[in-house]
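Researcher: I'm preparing a figure for a lab meeting and need a structural model of a single chain. I don't have an experimental structure, so a prediction will have to do for now. The sequence is pasted below. Please return the structure as tokens so I can convert it later.
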Amino acid sequence: MQVQVHANQIEGSARLQEWVSSAVMDKLDHFEERLSRVVVHISDENGHKSGPDDKRCQIEARPKGHQAISVTHKAHDMGVAVDGAAEKMRHALEHLTGRLESRVVSTGRLEASDDVILTDALLQEDFLAKQEELDKD
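Model: Understood. Here is the structure written out token by token.
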């Protein structure tokens, strides 16, 4: 999984980018095989002025074979904004993967186990035996 960090109105040092990247990867590591890329945009919406919820973190994840998913979280502190957005993305990906897994189950396609095959064979034998008895009568 590739993580790209873009900073706007914030000094985008290599240390900040590493911290943001590792914080996001820690939250999303469970989905690493399902994601091709994660893009993180961090910004200070008020520039140099301070204010409530002026730090913004937007995370866009690109699941393989699906459309991109985007979440945003605003907070008074950049750390809280990044953690909040990463948690929202984790929930969104859990929802997506949960839907995908339930869709497979809803199709009725189950892997045949030995018990199912044995039961089917017994039912078929019973059916054929009853058919022979009916044909004799």
